[in-house]
Amino acid sequence: MFVFRAFRSAVRAASGLVFPSLCLGCGGPLADAAPICASCVRMLPRPAPEALAGQLLARDCAEPLARRSVALWRFDPGGTVQRVQHALKYGRRPSLGIPLGRLLGDATQRHARGWAPDVVCPVPLAPIRELERGYNQSAGLASGAADALACETEDLLVRTRSTRTQTTLAFSERWQNVAGAFARSPEARPLAGVRVLLVDDVVTTGATLLAAAQPLLDAGAEVTVAALAMADG
Description:
The chain is α/β, with parallel strands linked by helices. The chain has a single domain (45-230), classed as 3-Layer(aba) Sandwich (Rossmann fold), CATH 3.40.50. It contains ten helices and seven strands. The protein has helices at 2-18, 38-43, 51-57, 63-68, 80-89, 97-111, 127-133, 137-149, 171-178, 207-218, and strands at residues 70-74, 119-122, 152-153, 157-159, 182-184, 195-203, 222-230. It has a five-stranded parallel sheet, sandwiched between helices. Helix 10 links the parallel strand 6 (195-203) and strand 7. Helix 6 crosses helix 8 (137-149). The model is unreliable at 1-19 (pLDDT under 50). Belongs to the ComF/GntX family. This is Phosphoribosyltransferase domain-containing protein. Residues 138-228 form the Phosphoribosyltransferase domain. InterPro entries: ComF/GntX_DNA_util-trans, PRTase-like, PRTase_dom.
């Protein structure tokens, strides 16, 4: 098994030399592990600084949580942001999460007005979905964000039940789908007064992020949410 893994790693490394990774925006060669070049990053659509806060407040979100929330990009169906998100989530490329998470961590640092997390927590997938996909795309984002913010990442949450994919559901159905679907992990540290950055890949209505934040808030944590992209809810 070790020999096979070493051979597979060598093949992948050699393939990278012969077929360098290409930017998902302009198609040019990439110099690092990020899926998009620096020029394309600067051109990606960004939401207004208070856009996500306004959307969450409209869902009766607590004001402190909403005010510090951040989305790095605006989701652009058929565009570069969607290609990046789909490569991370469905393209079996979990390594993309680290460089993307660093960008998200930098955005959080700029936007949160002096607030800094003690720990970064990914929104967990249902076990069967993570088994099917092979990884949780939000875990890589959380690791990258924690790296940028000089803190640690920890799985503070568990899924209490499986849920339907949110992409096919109407607004009201999304909230019913995820209500009570998350709980604090039995192995989590005491959270009273702990500042937690909760990370997911895309936020639409905010239902998933807010449902996941609730057990952390109930445990006394100070929570801020961050997403790679914000879709129109």
